[in-house]
Design brief:
The complex is a heterodimer of chains A (165) and B (154). By secondary structure, chain A is mainly β. Chain A has one helix and eleven strands. With 154 residues, chain B is mainly β. Chain B has a single domain, classed as Immunoglobulin-like. The radius of gyration of chain B is 21 Å and the shape is elongated. The two termini of chain B are 33 Å apart. Classes of the chains: A mainly beta (165), B mainly beta (154). At the A-B interface, helix 1 and strand 1 of A face helix 1, strand 1, strand 2, strand 4 and strand 13 of B.
Chain lengths: 165, 154
Protein backbone atom coordinates (compact mmCIF):
# COMPACT_ATOMS: atom_id res chain seq x y z
CA UNK A 1 0.00 0.00 0.00
CA UNK A 2 1.41 3.38 -0.89
CA UNK A 3 2.61 5.53 1.97
CA UNK A 4 0.09 8.30 1.40
CA UNK A 5 -2.79 5.82 1.53
CA UNK A 6 -1.45 4.29 4.71
CA UNK A 7 -1.05 7.64 6.37
CA UNK A 8 -4.54 8.73 5.38
CA UNK A 9 -6.11 5.60 6.74
CA UNK A 10 -4.30 6.08 10.06
CA UNK A 11 -5.58 9.64 10.22
CA UNK A 12 -9.13 8.47 9.50
CA UNK A 13 -8.85 5.80 12.20
CA UNK A 14 -7.66 8.36 14.74
CA UNK A 15 -10.44 10.75 13.81
CA UNK A 16 -13.10 8.06 14.15
CA UNK A 17 -11.71 6.95 17.49
CA UNK A 18 -11.57 10.57 18.73
CA UNK A 19 -15.25 11.11 17.91
CA UNK A 20 -16.39 8.24 20.18
CA UNK A 21 -14.26 9.44 23.13
CA UNK A 22 -15.68 12.99 23.22
CA UNK A 23 -19.35 12.29 24.20
CA UNK A 24 -20.17 15.04 26.71
CA UNK A 25 -21.42 14.43 30.21
CA UNK A 26 -21.58 16.64 33.23
CA UNK A 27 -23.36 16.92 36.57
CA UNK A 28 -24.18 19.25 39.41
CA UNK A 29 -25.69 18.97 42.88
CA UNK A 30 -28.12 20.90 45.04
CA UNK A 31 -29.03 20.54 48.69
CA UNK A 32 -32.40 19.74 50.21
CA UNK A 33 -32.91 21.31 53.63
CA UNK A 34 -35.54 21.08 56.37
CA UNK A 35 -35.94 22.20 59.97
CA UNK A 36 -37.91 19.75 62.07
CA UNK A 37 -39.77 21.45 64.87
CA UNK A 38 -40.25 20.28 68.47
CA UNK A 39 -42.49 17.22 68.91
CA UNK A 40 -45.73 17.58 70.87
CA UNK A 41 -45.93 16.39 74.48
CA UNK A 42 -49.23 16.08 76.38
CA UNK A 43 -49.48 15.38 80.09
CA UNK A 44 -52.58 14.74 82.23
CA UNK A 45 -51.63 17.25 84.92
CA UNK A 46 -54.76 17.17 87.11
CA UNK A 47 -57.76 14.88 87.54
CA UNK A 48 -61.37 16.04 87.13
CA UNK A 49 -62.53 15.73 90.74
CA UNK A 50 -66.20 15.84 91.71
CA UNK A 51 -65.46 15.02 95.31
CA UNK A 52 -68.51 13.92 97.33
CA UNK A 53 -71.72 13.55 95.33
CA UNK A 54 -75.14 12.65 96.76
CA UNK A 55 -77.79 10.42 95.24
CA UNK A 56 -80.30 12.45 93.31
CA UNK A 57 -78.20 15.61 93.44
CA UNK A 58 -76.40 16.67 90.30
CA UNK A 59 -72.94 18.03 90.70
CA UNK A 60 -70.98 20.19 88.29
CA UNK A 61 -67.31 21.04 88.18
CA UNK A 62 -66.72 24.09 86.01
CA UNK A 63 -63.80 24.21 83.62
CA UNK A 64 -62.85 27.46 85.34
CA UNK A 65 -62.38 25.62 88.64
CA UNK A 66 -58.60 25.62 88.86
CA UNK A 67 -58.66 23.21 91.78
CA UNK A 68 -61.10 20.55 90.62
CA UNK A 69 -61.26 20.76 86.82
CA UNK A 70 -59.23 18.27 84.87
CA UNK A 71 -56.15 19.78 83.24
CA UNK A 72 -53.87 18.80 80.35
CA UNK A 73 -50.50 20.46 79.83
CA UNK A 74 -49.18 20.63 76.27
CA UNK A 75 -45.67 21.51 75.08
CA UNK A 76 -44.38 21.78 71.54
CA UNK A 77 -43.15 24.15 68.86
CA UNK A 78 -43.56 27.82 69.71
CA UNK A 79 -46.52 29.50 68.02
CA UNK A 80 -47.58 26.33 66.21
CA UNK A 81 -51.22 25.64 65.47
CA UNK A 82 -52.59 22.39 66.87
CA UNK A 83 -55.82 20.41 66.82
CA UNK A 84 -57.30 18.98 69.99
CA UNK A 85 -59.57 15.96 70.00
CA UNK A 86 -61.26 14.42 73.02
CA UNK A 87 -62.57 11.02 73.98
CA UNK A 88 -65.19 11.58 76.68
CA UNK A 89 -66.88 8.86 78.73
CA UNK A 90 -70.64 8.87 79.10
CA UNK A 91 -70.47 7.17 82.48
CA UNK A 92 -68.15 6.70 85.41
CA UNK A 93 -67.87 3.21 86.85
CA UNK A 94 -67.61 1.63 90.29
CA UNK A 95 -67.50 -2.09 89.78
CA UNK A 96 -70.69 -2.90 87.95
CA UNK A 97 -72.35 0.39 88.90
CA UNK A 98 -72.33 3.35 86.58
CA UNK A 99 -72.78 7.06 87.13
CA UNK A 100 -73.76 9.28 84.20
CA UNK A 101 -71.47 12.17 83.28
CA UNK A 102 -72.27 14.85 80.73
CA UNK A 103 -72.20 18.59 79.93
CA UNK A 104 -68.50 18.66 79.22
CA UNK A 105 -66.96 22.13 78.96
CA UNK A 106 -63.41 23.31 78.41
CA UNK A 107 -61.08 26.29 78.64
CA UNK A 108 -57.69 26.70 76.97
CA UNK A 109 -54.99 29.20 77.82
CA UNK A 110 -51.29 29.72 77.32
CA UNK A 111 -50.67 29.95 81.07
CA UNK A 112 -51.50 27.78 84.07
CA UNK A 113 -53.50 30.60 85.72
CA UNK A 114 -56.11 30.52 82.96
CA UNK A 115 -55.56 34.23 82.30
CA UNK A 116 -57.24 35.21 79.04
CA UNK A 117 -58.61 31.71 78.76
CA UNK A 118 -60.81 30.79 75.81
CA UNK A 119 -63.82 28.54 76.20
CA UNK A 120 -64.27 25.43 74.10
CA UNK A 121 -66.62 22.51 73.81
CA UNK A 122 -64.48 19.39 74.01
CA UNK A 123 -65.14 17.30 70.95
CA UNK A 124 -63.68 15.56 67.94
CA UNK A 125 -61.74 18.55 66.68
CA UNK A 126 -60.84 21.80 68.42
CA UNK A 127 -58.40 24.27 66.92
CA UNK A 128 -55.85 25.81 69.26
CA UNK A 129 -52.38 27.28 69.26
CA UNK A 130 -49.23 26.97 71.31
CA UNK A 131 -47.82 30.05 72.95
CA UNK A 132 -44.64 31.86 72.05
CA UNK A 133 -42.92 29.51 74.47
CA UNK A 134 -44.63 26.42 73.07
CA UNK A 135 -47.16 25.93 75.87
CA UNK A 136 -50.89 25.25 76.05
CA UNK A 137 -53.09 24.43 79.03
CA UNK A 138 -56.54 22.85 78.68
CA UNK A 139 -59.10 22.47 81.46
CA UNK A 140 -62.12 20.19 81.34
CA UNK A 141 -65.23 20.36 83.49
CA UNK A 142 -68.43 18.30 83.44
CA UNK A 143 -71.52 17.26 85.37
CA UNK A 144 -72.44 14.01 87.10
CA UNK A 145 -76.07 13.06 87.60
CA UNK A 146 -76.38 10.42 90.32
CA UNK A 147 -79.67 8.60 90.52
CA UNK A 148 -81.68 8.71 93.72
CA UNK A 149 -80.72 5.12 94.34
CA UNK A 150 -77.16 5.55 93.15
CA UNK A 151 -75.00 2.93 94.79
CA UNK A 152 -72.37 4.18 97.16
CA UNK A 153 -68.81 3.98 95.93
CA UNK A 154 -65.93 5.66 94.17
CA UNK A 155 -66.66 6.13 90.48
CA UNK A 156 -63.97 6.69 87.87
CA UNK A 157 -63.63 7.21 84.14
CA UNK A 158 -61.00 8.21 81.59
CA UNK A 159 -60.94 11.40 79.56
CA UNK A 160 -58.41 11.40 76.70
CA UNK A 161 -57.11 14.42 74.81
CA UNK A 162 -55.09 14.00 71.61
CA UNK A 163 -53.03 16.86 70.19
CA UNK A 164 -51.62 17.02 66.66
CA UNK A 165 -49.99 19.74 64.59
CA UNK B 1 -7.41 13.62 -8.45
CA UNK B 2 -5.64 10.47 -7.38
CA UNK B 3 -6.90 7.91 -4.89
CA UNK B 4 -4.55 9.02 -2.19
CA UNK B 5 -5.91 12.54 -2.28
CA UNK B 6 -9.49 11.36 -1.93
CA UNK B 7 -8.61 9.29 1.11
CA UNK B 8 -6.86 12.20 2.78
CA UNK B 9 -9.79 14.51 2.10
CA UNK B 10 -12.18 11.92 3.52
CA UNK B 11 -10.15 11.74 6.74
CA UNK B 12 -10.18 15.50 7.07
CA UNK B 13 -13.94 15.65 6.52
CA UNK B 14 -14.42 13.12 9.28
CA UNK B 15 -12.63 15.58 11.53
CA UNK B 16 -15.00 18.48 10.74
CA UNK B 17 -18.00 17.37 12.86
CA UNK B 18 -15.82 17.46 16.00
CA UNK B 19 -15.20 21.16 15.54
CA UNK B 20 -18.98 21.90 15.11
CA UNK B 21 -19.76 20.06 18.43
CA UNK B 22 -17.31 22.15 20.37
CA UNK B 23 -19.88 23.89 22.63
CA UNK B 24 -19.19 22.58 26.13
CA UNK B 25 -21.84 21.05 28.34
CA UNK B 26 -22.27 22.65 31.76
CA UNK B 27 -24.71 21.86 34.55
CA UNK B 28 -25.17 24.31 37.40
CA UNK B 29 -27.08 23.90 40.65
CA UNK B 30 -29.10 27.11 40.97
CA UNK B 31 -31.37 26.52 43.98
CA UNK B 32 -31.86 23.80 46.58
CA UNK B 33 -35.11 22.19 47.70
CA UNK B 34 -36.24 24.07 50.79
CA UNK B 35 -38.77 22.43 53.08
CA UNK B 36 -38.47 25.04 55.82
CA UNK B 37 -40.23 24.31 59.10
CA UNK B 38 -41.38 20.72 59.25
CA UNK B 39 -43.68 19.43 61.98
CA UNK B 40 -43.22 15.91 63.36
CA UNK B 41 -45.77 13.56 61.88
CA UNK B 42 -46.81 16.00 59.16
CA UNK B 43 -45.47 15.38 55.63
CA UNK B 44 -44.16 18.48 53.88
CA UNK B 45 -44.50 18.74 50.11
CA UNK B 46 -42.49 21.02 47.84
CA UNK B 47 -43.83 21.16 44.29
CA UNK B 48 -41.48 21.47 41.31
CA UNK B 49 -43.51 24.55 40.35
CA UNK B 50 -42.76 26.33 43.65
CA UNK B 51 -40.65 29.33 42.60
CA UNK B 52 -39.10 29.82 46.04
CA UNK B 53 -38.65 26.30 47.39
CA UNK B 54 -38.22 23.95 44.45
CA UNK B 55 -34.77 22.84 43.32
CA UNK B 56 -33.37 24.14 40.04
CA UNK B 57 -30.51 23.16 37.72
CA UNK B 58 -29.49 25.12 34.64
CA UNK B 59 -28.02 23.36 31.61
CA UNK B 60 -25.94 24.89 28.84
CA UNK B 61 -24.71 22.83 25.95
CA UNK B 62 -24.98 21.89 22.28
CA UNK B 63 -28.46 21.78 20.80
CA UNK B 64 -29.85 18.31 20.55
CA UNK B 65 -30.86 15.41 22.74
CA UNK B 66 -29.51 14.87 26.23
CA UNK B 67 -30.17 12.22 28.84
CA UNK B 68 -31.11 13.47 32.29
CA UNK B 69 -30.67 11.20 35.30
CA UNK B 70 -30.79 11.98 39.00
CA UNK B 71 -29.01 10.53 41.99
CA UNK B 72 -31.68 10.86 44.65
CA UNK B 73 -31.29 10.50 48.42
CA UNK B 74 -33.66 8.24 50.32
CA UNK B 75 -33.36 10.21 53.55
CA UNK B 76 -32.28 13.53 54.97
CA UNK B 77 -29.74 13.52 57.78
CA UNK B 78 -30.19 15.57 60.93
CA UNK B 79 -28.94 15.94 64.50
CA UNK B 80 -27.10 12.98 65.99
CA UNK B 81 -27.47 11.15 62.69
CA UNK B 82 -31.27 11.16 62.77
CA UNK B 83 -32.79 10.19 59.41
CA UNK B 84 -35.94 11.58 57.87
CA UNK B 85 -37.40 9.82 54.82
CA UNK B 86 -37.48 11.76 51.57
CA UNK B 87 -39.62 10.67 48.63
CA UNK B 88 -39.89 11.71 44.99
CA UNK B 89 -43.11 11.27 43.08
CA UNK B 90 -43.55 10.27 39.45
CA UNK B 91 -43.95 13.91 38.41
CA UNK B 92 -41.57 15.59 40.81
CA UNK B 93 -39.11 16.69 38.12
CA UNK B 94 -39.72 19.10 35.24
CA UNK B 95 -37.76 20.08 32.14
CA UNK B 96 -38.07 23.53 30.63
CA UNK B 97 -36.59 24.53 27.27
CA UNK B 98 -37.37 28.14 28.11
CA UNK B 99 -35.93 27.96 31.64
CA UNK B 100 -39.31 29.12 32.93
CA UNK B 101 -40.72 27.43 36.02
CA UNK B 102 -44.20 27.92 34.63
CA UNK B 103 -43.38 26.02 31.45
CA UNK B 104 -42.19 22.53 32.30
CA UNK B 105 -42.64 19.01 31.05
CA UNK B 106 -42.99 16.81 34.09
CA UNK B 107 -41.13 13.57 34.46
CA UNK B 108 -40.21 10.98 37.07
CA UNK B 109 -36.84 11.88 38.61
CA UNK B 110 -36.35 8.22 39.49
CA UNK B 111 -36.13 7.36 35.76
CA UNK B 112 -33.74 8.59 33.03
CA UNK B 113 -35.38 11.21 30.83
CA UNK B 114 -34.47 12.26 27.29
CA UNK B 115 -34.76 15.97 26.66
CA UNK B 116 -33.83 18.33 23.84
CA UNK B 117 -31.64 21.36 24.33
CA UNK B 118 -32.98 24.13 22.10
CA UNK B 119 -31.05 26.21 19.57
CA UNK B 120 -29.94 28.73 22.17
CA UNK B 121 -28.23 25.98 24.14
CA UNK B 122 -29.95 26.69 27.45
CA UNK B 123 -32.50 24.75 29.51
CA UNK B 124 -33.50 24.17 33.11
CA UNK B 125 -34.60 21.27 35.30
CA UNK B 126 -36.82 21.77 38.34
CA UNK B 127 -37.38 19.29 41.14
CA UNK B 128 -39.76 18.87 44.06
CA UNK B 129 -40.03 16.26 46.81
CA UNK B 130 -41.83 15.23 50.00
CA UNK B 131 -40.27 15.12 53.46
CA UNK B 132 -41.87 12.53 55.74
CA UNK B 133 -41.07 13.24 59.40
CA UNK B 134 -42.03 10.66 61.98
CA UNK B 135 -44.26 11.67 64.88
CA UNK B 136 -41.20 11.48 67.11
CA UNK B 137 -38.75 12.95 64.59
CA UNK B 138 -35.82 14.55 66.37
CA UNK B 139 -35.98 18.32 66.16
CA UNK B 140 -33.27 20.16 64.27
CA UNK B 141 -31.82 20.85 60.83
CA UNK B 142 -31.78 18.15 58.14
CA UNK B 143 -29.99 18.06 54.78
CA UNK B 144 -29.56 15.83 51.73
CA UNK B 145 -27.83 16.10 48.35
CA UNK B 146 -29.56 15.78 44.98
CA UNK B 147 -27.37 15.22 41.90
CA UNK B 148 -28.37 15.72 38.27
CA UNK B 149 -26.32 13.98 35.54
CA UNK B 150 -26.62 15.24 31.97
CA UNK B 151 -25.21 13.34 28.99
CA UNK B 152 -25.25 14.52 25.38
CA UNK B 153 -26.76 11.83 23.17
CA UNK B 154 -25.30 11.08 19.74
Amino acid sequence: MRSITKLSLVVAALVLTGTALQAQSNNASITATASVQTPISVVGAQQLNFGNAFPGVNKTVAAADLTNAGRFDVTGQANAGVTLSFTLPATLSSGSNTLPIDSYAGIRADNSSQTSGIGLVPGASNAAGLSATGLLFVWVGARVTPATNQAQGTYTGTITMTVVY
Amino acid sequence: MNRESWIVIGAMLLGVPLLAQGKPLTVTGIRGVTFGAVLPGVPRVVLRTDPANSGQFDIKGPKGNVLLSFVLPLTMTGPAGAQMPLTFGSSDAGYSQTQAIGSQVGFDPKQPFTATIPNNGSASVFVGATANPAANQRAGGYTATIILNVTVLP
